[in-house]
Amino acid sequence: CLQSKVYKELEAGNFPFVLGGGHDMSFSNFAAAAKYILKQKPNASIGAINIDPHFDIRDFDNGANSGTSFNEMAKFCVQQGLTYNYYCLGINKESNAEHLFQAANDLGVRYCCDDELNRASELIEECVENCDYIYFTLDMDAFKSTLAPGVSAQAKVGWDVETIMHFITIIKTSNKLIVADIAELNPRFDIDERTAKLAAEFTKFILS
């Protein structure tokens, strides 16, 4: 499974990078990183930064899916005795039901909305300061829909390329990034391969 493959790459001294696919992969990537870190440094902390207009913290009693990964992380952290450090940047108020905002507050999710660019930078800096390691995931529907039409749920507002590159630069320069992925690329809805090309550009940027 994905979790075991990511774990093996970490054990081999590699930097795992995954290109998806639904955001359901995020739990596997985070769990692999956390288990690897705990084995090496039992007292270390790990933060999860998600650039995404959606919380993806829905309940998973009826099964996991692309909207449940970060709730699964919360339960996993409780089981492993870890602090749940989830930072979600770019939330769109119209794309998340009221009960999801309540769930985010109950879980202690640190988040900002898509009109709070300065707040986004502050939250990244907070994660960098408070966590020993960082798992990062970029949801392609965080971009303006004209830039990335090939996603399952297009952003109502969205951010531009330069903004998201700035955020990733802060994360990369911390030297705390341990696993990363790009999620929600859906070729079925793409136009002139815009989204695929953008994902390729950001893959190169994250790995450079």
**Poorly predicted parts:** none
Q: Would you tell me the overall average pLDDT?
A: 95
Count of extended strands: 6
Distance between the termini: 27 Å
The DSSP helix count reads 7
Order of helices and strands: HEHEHEHEHEHEH
Content-based structural category: alpha/beta
| Order of neighbouring strands in the sheet with most strands | 1-6-5-2-3-4
Largest sheet: 6 strands, parallel
Helix content: 40-55%
Could you write a compact summary of the structure shown?
It is built from 7 helices and 6 strands; from the N terminus they run H-E-H-E-H-E-H-E-H-E-H-E-H. The chain is of the alpha/beta class and about 210 residues long.
Give descriptors for this structure.
6 strands; 43% helix; 208 residues
Structure description:
This protein is an alpha/beta fold and 208 residues long. It has helices spanning 2-11, 25-40, 69-80, 98-107, 117-130, 161-173, 194-207; strands spanning 17-19, 46-51, 85-91, 110-113, 133-139, 177-183. A 6-stranded parallel sheet has the order 1-6-5-2-3-4, sandwiched between helices. The two termini are 27 Å apart.
Question: Topology of this protein?
Answer:
Blueprint lengths: L1 H10 L5 E3 L5 H16 L5 E6 L17 H12 L4 E7 L6 H10 L2 E4 L3 H14 L2 E7 L21 H13 L3 E7 L10 H14 L1
Parallel strand pairs: 1-6, 2-3, 2-5, 3-4, 5-6
